[in-house]
Amino acid sequence: MHPSRIDLADNVRKQSIAILQARLADAIDLAAQLKQAHWNVRGPRFIQLHELFDRLHGEVSTAVDDIAERIVALGGIADGRIQTAARTSSLYEYALQAAGGTAHTKAVSAVLAQFGAGLRAAIDQTAAAGDAGTADLFTELSRQADKQLWFVEAHLDGDD
């Protein structure tokens, strides 16, 4: 761990870095899954879902950056390698054969819900460790994930 003048004990920083790294792997995986949906969605709601998945990808990419920068600010090394994300992500694997809007919407909503649950657990874990700043970051990201899930799930209401 790199030295820092942040007034958090080393053990608190180490705990937060480990929690942040786990969520970073999930966020990288989520971003890739959103692109998978964006590229491959088909059907009568194509343009709405194609654009929604692309917008969400952009938002999640910003979250990836925020998480990685917090790791580095705490003195850690952000591991954003695809190999690491593939090995350690806790998210569902995206269904390669998903084609229609409903299939992609269900797949995206499942991983968004899972991502949000991981963020909420991270809020509690980092707050309990004594790192209010990291808990606050996770709180903001969880609100964003909940809103993203709402936008996606709205496409499932009254679905054919």
3D architecture notes:
The protein has 160 residues and is an all-alpha fold. It has a single domain (10-153), classed as Ferritin, core subunit, four-helix bundle (Ferritin). 73% of the residues lie in helices and 0% in strands. The chain is built from 5 helices and no strands. It has helices at residues 10-40, 46-73, 82-88, 101-129, 132-153. The longest helix is centred in the first third of the chain and has 31 residues, at 10-40. The termini are far apart.
Question: CATH superfamily membership, which one?
Answer: Ferritin, core subunit, four-helix bundle
Rg (C-alpha, Å): 17 Å
SSE string, helices as H and strands as E: HHHHH
The parts where pLDDT drops under 50 for at least 5 residues are none
Number of strands: 0
- Alpha-beta content class: mainly alpha
Helix count? Answer: 5
CATH class: Mainly Alpha
Number of domains: 1
Q: Mean pLDDT, nearest integer?
A: 95
Shape: elongated
What about the largest sheet? none
Strand content: under 5%
Roughly how many Å apart are the termini? 53 Å
CATH topology: Ferritin
CATH architecture verdict: Up-down Bundle
Helical content band: over 70%
